[in-house]
Amino acid sequence: MSGTLHNSFYAHPQALIDDGAVIGEKTRIWAFSHILAGAVIGQDCNICDHTLIETGATLGNRVTVKCGVYIWEGVTIADDVFIGPSVVFTNDRLPRSKSYGPDGLLKTLVKTGSSIGANATLLPEITIGEYAMVAAASVVTKDVPAYALVAGNPARIRGWVCQCAKRLEFVSERASCCNKEYHLLNEKMLEVI
To answer: What's the number of domains the chain is made of?
Structure first.
């Protein structure tokens, strides 16, 4: 692996990391990635080729960002999230050149353990719940509940998944997987301990 070890993270020689970016230990940043000043990236992340992480974006620990993803100001990604190739984040509901809509830049939150498939598009002011799964090429226009599997344009709930990502099969609103029990109640998933 050629490149530079900066204190405790790895950067490919063709990655661009601005002074003032905060990058955690064991994180790997690959070729043609640009990390702007004020971006925050946690520990043990993998930031693949041709990515941009803008000032004001925050990534937790153990996040994977595949090629061709741009993470804009106002996007917060929690721990253990997978962002597939060419996922599109947005942060302005009424975009115009050189100005922001009346609400300014909007926020997006991707919660712990969730996965977003290749070429999915997320409109601004969306929350993706814990361990949710967004199918490839989906267009997410509203919040996604924890453990939900959403697909389509606009994305709709098509099922529910375990923390391991396997689709859950319900009997009387209950399912089990990976030694965990789940209960579906009013379109919300509860993990039963």
So the answer is: 1
Task: Let me know if residue 171 belongs to a domain.
Answer: no
- Its pTM stands at 0.94
Domain span at residue 55?
A: 4-163
pLDDT by residue for the chain (193 residues), tens only, comes to 455 556 699 999 999 999 999 999 999 999 999 999 999 999 999 999 999 999 999 999 999 999 999 999 999 999 999 999 999 999 998 888 888 877 788 999 999 999 999 999 999 999 999 999 999 999 999 999 999 999 999 999 999 999 999 999 999 889 999 999 999 988 788 776 6
Domain membership flag for residue 70: yes
Picking from 8, 30, 6, the residue whose alpha carbon sits closest to that of residue 19 is 6
Asked, for residue 45, whether it belongs to a domain, the answer is: yes
Question: Residue 13 maps to which CATH number?
Answer: 2.160.10.10
What Rg, from alpha-carbon coordinates, does the chain have? 18
